[in-house]
Amino acid sequence: MKNILIIDVESTCWQGKIPAGMSSEVIELGYAILQEGEGVLEWGSFLIPPRHSEISAFCTELTTISPETFVLEAEKVVQRSDLLEQLNALTRRHGWHNFKSCQWGSWGDYDFKMLVKTFGEQELRKDHHLNIKQQHAAERGLPKALGMGQALRFENLELQGTHHRGGDDAFNIARIARKVLGW
């Protein structure tokens, strides 16, 4: 059986320029385990408290994540220093040795770049990453890659959950990936 881990990250963001002293950092990591012939086996998300940035009103409007979210969804909160071990435990449950050894994908390369920023290059293998956005465009013969919402509509799928929430987006990306991969 083939599995793929789908990841979607949400990061601190601002409308316009990034304020002085702040940087974009992962505040939510959504995941979905997609298995050939079975569909989505498991999905969810981890909330990661920001270290160097504040969550802007714009970010909250876009993602629904606010400082209060870390209290209201406390069961999902993982400290940045523990996030890699949580991903290792998740991937081991589904037959991989660890996160670094698993096949994983995301909608574009942004998530890969943000995970490199979070964990460092030594914890990731680019050859294990599938850019589902590019593959979708190529498989469907599209002249330009679509956004996730557009791709859902193109595939006659309805958005499930809340757009720009990591777990929900990972689940929706997995649904698109299942069609693209023919699973």
From TrEMBL:
Molecular function, one GO term: exonuclease activity
Keywords associated with the record: Exonuclease, Hydrolase, Nuclease
PANTHER family: 3'-5' EXONUCLEASE ERI1-RELATED (PTHR23044), 3'-5' EXORIBONUCLEASE 1-RELATED (PTHR23044:SF61)
Species: Deinococcus roseus
All copies of domain Exonuclease, residue ranges: 5-176
InterPro entries cross-referenced by the UniProt entry: 3-5_Exoribonuclease, ERI-1_3'hExo-like, Ribonucl_H, RNaseH-like_sf, RNaseH_sf
UniProt key word Cell inner membrane: no
A Pfam family it matches: RNase_T
Name of the featured protein: Exonuclease
UniProt lineage: Bacteria, Thermotogati, Deinococcota, Deinococci, Deinococcales
Superkingdom of origin organism: Bacteria
